[in-house]
Design goal:
This protein has about 220 residues and is of the alpha/beta class. It has a single domain, classed as 3-Layer(aba) Sandwich (Uracil-DNA Glycosylase, subunit E), CATH 3.40.470.10. Helix content is about 40%, strand content about 10%. It has eight helices and six strands. It has a six-stranded mixed sheet with strand order 1-3-2-4-6-5, with helices on both faces. A hairpin with a 2-residue loop joins β5 and β6. α5 packs across α6. The radius of gyration is 16 Å and the shape is globular. The two termini are about 30 Å apart.
Amino acid sequence: MADSLDRLTDEIVRCERCPRLVEWRAEAAANPPRRYQGEEYWGRPLPGFGDPDARVLLVGLAPAAHGGNRTGRMFTGDRSGDWLYAALHRAGFANQALAASRDDGLRLRDAYITAVNRCPPPANKPTPAERDNCLPFLVRELGLLERGRVIVTLGSYAWNGTLLALRERGIELPRPKPRFGHGAEASVGPYALLGCYHPSQQNTFTGKLTEPMLDAVFARARELA
């Protein structure tokens, strides 16, 4: 059977390869904070989201326990997503800045969002084994997104995970290995790899990542695409 994004999505949402993460995502769903009590959590691994013909691909670390794990869509329902989708909207990659739920009407144009890990990890720290269990999904995804030309990695974990996935796809990596940094660029096979600080509250509240910095990355991504 030929591979497809729909088939990959089906496999991702049924995955239970990592017992610790299966337990953690269920624990988060069963014990939500007060502001989310009464909501039905997605509570499963998350597939990618966006335009299947996208030239610009975004790779994050993993869903948030009370963000994507709750809503069922990457970077949706948390403050990181508020920053990210607002920037994508300003750059013309999204039809709206709001990202609240799977049925909020949000659509991406020429952009696709995915992650190295598909389940929320405790303390946002997957183990190397958990990363490796999930990495084949990203490898296949990159192959299926045939028009992809630019990969924006949100944080160093996503940068390194993307390099591993590209290597698994048989793409020769530059030497020395490209190093992550905000605004860092590397040519890897057919892709331009761009580094961007993760839009976490730790980075946005402290000013390590500002809206102009995020906008500049997406402007560069559009230019390269």
